[in-house]
Write a structure and sequence with these properties.
alpha/beta, seven-stranded mixed sheet, six-stranded mixed sheet, 13 strands, 38% helix, globular
């Protein structure tokens, strides 16, 4: 569990606050950007209860309630709270296309179980959905009010927010929110692995250019939705370096886990960790399945 209180907004800069992720029911980090005119919420939370927690934190800390919403990608934990928020919202065109599909689905237990059996949902998400939101009879999935093809800049009042569609392995529709004046980037889940096509997978073809693009932004902080707290630039650089290092070794040596692990420990001159193993396995899965289509 994070050392940061899960029910409080924590300041990152004078204009940016974040509500911590909670892995117990897969709640992602939520971001709040307070401009002079508008207050932008980054991601909608995974349930009305998650939205309620956010609203209570805003009220308790006498802050401005959000006036608009950016949705980073289509996954349930980032969108199930959107109807409750009922705000003007922004998402990539592809996110919106998938939200239109999700809005037509039955979210009852039996239908969820069937989608897992059919490969349209994964057991982890089904179990977390049931844990977070036992009664889904009132669940509404709403689409965004504005869609973004590649990039859109919002003027929040003395603070610009750049909404940039970046894609990635985790969700091909991913969008980041970059706040140049604050030197902060909200990543959503874009740097994480793909969960929807068998084993967790990463590909060098998707991840490497994405990391390069993210590191090219002059940012001091990178907020990844399921990390315990925002990463400093040097922490993000270290994560990116490790991912690139292992991904490169896997692509050079091919499907030979023993040789890969030997190479990792030699090159990094460090004892192998569970993290090293998991990253290697994800790149091996990406090697076996280099390209995938959206499940929706």
């Amino acid at each position: 569990m994070s050392m940061h209180a899960l029910d409080q907004l924590h300041p990152l800069t004078e204009r940016i606050f974040w509500l911590p992720a909670d892995s117990r029911t897969d709640r992602p980090m939520l971001g709040l950007v307070v401009g002079n005119r508008e207050c932008l919420l980054i991601d909608a939370g995974n349930s009305p209860a998650h939205v309620g927690l956010l609203r209570n934190a805003i009220q308790a800390q006498a802050m401005a309630q959000p006036t608009c919403l950016a949705i980073t990608h289509w996954h349930w934990d980032h969108v199930f709270g959107a109807a409750t928020l009922n705000l003007p919202s922004y998402a990539s065109q592809e996110t919106n296309r998938i939200l239109q599909v999700l809005a037509t689905l039955d979210w009852g237990d039996a239908a969820l179980d069937q989608r897992v059996a059919d490969g349209l949902e994964i057991a982890f998400c089904r179990d977390m959905i049931k844990a977070e939101l036992a009664d889904r009879s009132q669940l509404q999935i709403v689409t965004a009010t504005t869609t973004i093809e590649q990039q859109l800049t919002l003027d929040l009042g003395n603070c610009a927010a750049e909404l940039i569609v970046v894609g990635g392995d985790h969700a091909h529709d991913s969008m980041i929110v970059y706040l140049p004046s604050q030197a902060v980037v909200f990543l959503g889940d874009c740097i994480y692995d793909d969960l929807y096509h068998g084993s967790r997978r990463l590909t060098t073809s998707q991840l490497f250019p994405l990391l390069e693009r993210l590191l090219a932004l002059p940012a001091d902080y990178y907020c990844a939705s399921h990390h315990e707290q925002p990463l400093t630039r040097s922490e993000f650089e270290a994560e990116a370096q490790l991912l690139r290092h292992i991904g490169t070794i896997v692509s050079q040596l091919g499907p030979d886990p023993e040789a890969i692990l030997t190479q990792i420990s030699q090159q990094l001159a460090t004892p192998l960790t569970e993290d090293h193993h998991e990253i290697m396995q994800a790149f091996l899965a990406g090697l076996a399945l280099p390209e995938v289509k959206s499940i929706y």
